[in-house]
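Record format v2
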Amino acid sequence: MADSRKENTGEGELWEVFIQCETGAPHEHAGSVHAADAEMALQNARDVYARRGTVVSIWVVPTSAIAATSPSDEHPFFDPANDKAYRHPQFYKIPKTVKGF
Amino acid sequence: MPDLINAEEQLKRFEMRIAAGEKIEPKDWMPDRYRQQLIRMISQHAHSEIVGMLPEGNWITRAPTLRRKIGLLAKVQDEAGHGLYLYCAAETLGVDRRGMIEALLEGKAKYSHIFNYPTLTWADIGVIGWFVDGAAIVNQTMLAKCSYGPYSRANLRICKEENFHKRQGYEIVSTLSSGTLKQREMAQDAVNRWWWPSLMMFGPPDASSPNSAELLRWKIKLHSNDELRQHFVDITVPQAAAVSITLPDPKLRFDTSSGHWMFGEIDWSEFYEVIKGNGPCNKERMKARRDADSEGAWVRDAAHAYAEKHVSAGT
Amino acid sequence: MDPSTQKALIDFLLRLGDDRLILGHRLSEWCGHGPVLEEDIALTNIALDLIGQASAFLHLAGEIEGHRRSEDELAYFREATQFRNAQLVEQPNGDFAFTIARQFFFDAYNSLLLGEVQKSPHRQLAGIAAKGLAEATYHFRHSRDWMIRLGDGTDESRRRTQAAVNDLWRFTGELVTFDGTEQQLAENGIIPSLDQLRMHWLDRVSEGIRSATLSLPANGATMVSGSRRGNHSEHLGHLLAEMQIVARSYPDAQW
């Protein structure tokens, strides 16, 4: 991610926008906006990303606040997510006579 | 943790990822040339959207019905939004929006030559939606599949929104060409002025395009300029026939063996003149952008000053 | 509805429609020229909302009146003296401070007015007002927030914004002054009484101005009047000449 902490009085700070399209659904990343403060970032996000379709909630986060894994983390950090079977429901056998589990 | 493998090996792995159809994301290793090419392309694309607001914006206050007024406003607003998505995509590569905008205003950055032509009648608005957005859709549909994640996603979002732009333009032309005699003449005149410049939007034949080979290898481009241009001509010719519009090219003819519409020679000297700054509206477009930026400086300063006074970082 | 109340309703609808059409048109002039990209998009959103509201009000006016003029005929083929917008909205945009101050005064009024009109037993009128109210509430949030940032930003932004408030003040009286048209509609139960609106408007505006560290001109300033009866400033004629030119040049055409 670009370093948005540097002097940027021209365009304001960079914010990442997350949008929830219906209650109960997760917030999803929609893109970014520039704004000098959080309230304006929310309004800008609404104007830029919520013109089409329903939106019930918006989160904005300064881009600089986001901590992310880096590509060299990938293998040790995420692997082997799918081969530890004890985390999957199918690993466990329930007697067939028990209903509605 | 620093990567200990050498640069040659990194480049090899990078190109294997591209060949396998993987997306490159902002924090991935990439050759400096890849980064620079993308910064150039994405910022040019963003500048084009912003400058592109001006020729159509020229007719907002004169749109002849409330429905057309609303439709045109929404379209130009979308273009601002597209510019915004694209600047954000470029920023993932380590440049900031202020720097890109200043490069444009100082005349150091390029934008699509097409926006240096004037909109002289209401019919131009219809023809721009049909031809210019139509050509942009062909290009952006390809870019939505490019190798760089943020640029690919920005183009996907743009493509979804752009479809209404082309339909709106074509509907305007269709209405004019089935209207009064003066309206039909207005539409045909606009087509005569915008057809050839629209074909130039795809860029010169790839042989004369210095960047093409590299862009194709790294899947920043997936088709040649000529392929995209041919596709655009092929889809547009029947659309023109359907609204009784004549495309201003006496050499246009269907070639049954290839299944394509053959067309006449493009005058590339006009294209190079416009790119150089000698098009009909280059100076007016740049003045409009410089004025907006300089008149807006105190506003941006005020927003920043208020934030400094009242908002503590991270709250 | 008796003919005279119907006439008052048509007049009221033209006032509502014309205010939003002319203000939306002024805002649309910013498209491509805003101080920052996000604000270009924001102002255009407000313009679109206002023109949409205008279209609905004018359409209803045309339906109710005998001649059945469409919203386009009303927008594009009336003379300046037939328009019923307040003079506030036809003022040229000036700088961003002027535009925001003009918007602030209008949005404070618009959200209060539509809040009342949505209570009308006239189903169509209430429907348009209710939809417009949601938009107007958001517009007021936006313009109030900008007034505060400009008033309490830099010395320059404060100077410009205070000057805008001072220059625009004389146009605000017309917005919150109601005459026989609104009175007749209230007496006949078409809309609630708007007697309290000016006071609520002044409360809202004063609060926003205070938060912006600005001040309002002294009480007793002379207010312009007459535009609700067609007596406009010279600006409206030029605005309409531009807005109407294509439609009027091809009077029988479809677009």
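Strands of chain A lie at 13-20, 28-35, 57-62.
The interface with chain C takes residues 11-12, 33-36, 39-40, 43-44, 47-48, 51 of chain A (CB under 8 Å).
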